[in-house]
Amino acid sequence: MTPKPMLAPQTEEAYRRLRRMILSLELRPGEPLVERKLEERLGVSRTPIRAALQQLAREGLAARSGRVFVVAPLDLSELEEAFEFRTWLETQVVRVAASRRPNARELKELLASLEADLDPEVELEKATDFHLALARLTGNRFVVASLAQVLGRIYRARYLEITRPHGAEAAQSDHLALIELVQQGKGEEAAAFMRQHLERSRLALLRSLEGSALLART
């Protein structure tokens, strides 16, 4: 994810709890995030709640609606553009990574992201770590920053995708196959597989969102 600024302890607590409630759909898209009610619900004062809401808005999880924040809906056009951008970027990433081949330390970093976890949020962080670790193999900080930005922007959609039945297992299997292709220096095969991996993710997500109230109304 795109790095967030350091938050005061109470703000960090409110941010993490609200973020998890939004990601898990305990707080539904379009639901008002009224500071007074959140103060009672979270047992945290209004000032850190307001700061937490501002951070969630920067991440695209909350949005202003008049004088209050609401849980942001998912924007289908943004998701399509994000997957298109990821395909352009990450196919080139694995081509370059395969041409350089990871050393032992870099390979260890990639493999660490494949360790399974029962917590979906941790699982998604590991998936994010994997894609960013691949990007770092290019040696180009702008590539890493660009990928981090788009992954952070569609974080909630990726959370929904990875929590579908067998979503995490499918992602891990694909990631292992990508590591093997990169390690073997098979750049074009890795690029083709990355394209397939992202397309499978895109189609699975769109199927799960079809007709969903989670999407923005246009």
From TrEMBL:
Query: Mind listing the GO molecular function terms for this protein?
Result: DNA binding; DNA-binding transcription factor activity
Domain HTH gntR-type: residue ranges: 8-74
Please name the InterPro entries in this protein's record.
GntR_C, TF_FadR/GntR_C, Tscrpt_reg_HTH_GntR, WH-like_DNA-bd_sf, WH_DNA-bd_sf
Query: This protein's superkingdom?
Result: Bacteria
Q: Which UniProt keywords apply?
A: DNA-binding, Transcription, Transcription regulation
Keyword check for Magnesium: no
The family database entries (PANTHER family) matched by this protein are listed as: HTH-TYPE TRANSCRIPTIONAL REGULATOR LGOR-RELATED (PTHR43537:SF51), TRANSCRIPTIONAL REGULATOR, GNTR FAMILY (PTHR43537)
Q: What is this protein called?
A: HTH-type transcriptional repressor RspR
